[in-house]
Amino acid sequence: MKRYGLTLDLINDPTLISEYEEHHRQVWPEIQASIKEAGIRHMEIYRWGNRLFMVMETEDDFSFERKAALDASNPKVQEWEELMWQYQQALPGVAAGEKWQLMERIFAL
Fold it and tell me: What is the pLDDT of residues 10-33, one digit of tens each?
């Protein structure tokens, strides 16, 4: 198993943040299926203010490129991503339109 940490910001608006959280209490079954199909075995998202932190545990052969290709060919995933982008904003310093950013692990115990 591999483990990844990713981060992203939400638009800093309490109403939008609440709506985003509500969507994640009822993630569409097609989205959950696409996550599993990509080789992700466990996923959690945490929030502090408008900052999100995602932990993913994946199969050893997981690849972000393969997941991106699967997502690009899945209309339901594209619909979900378009919906989520209404709540999300790119982190400072990343290219426009880029979402979740892979974090570098700097400590493990």
Answer: 999 999 999 999 999 999 999 999
Q: Domains plus CATH for the chain?
A: 2-102 (3.30.70.1090)
Q: In a 3-state reduction of DSSP, which class is residue 47?
A: strand
Contact between residue 89 and residue 74 where contact means Cβ atoms under 8 Å apart: no
Q: Which of 46, 59, 62, 60 is nearest to 7 (CA)?
A: 46
pTM (predicted TM-score): 0.91
Burial (CB < 10 A; 0-12, 13-18, 19+), residue 11, is middle
Backbone angles phi, psi at 75, to 5 degrees: -60, -35
pLDDT band, residue 97 (cuts 50/70/90): confident
Q: From the centroid of its chain, how far is CA 22?
A: 15
3-state DSSP assignment of residue 1: coil
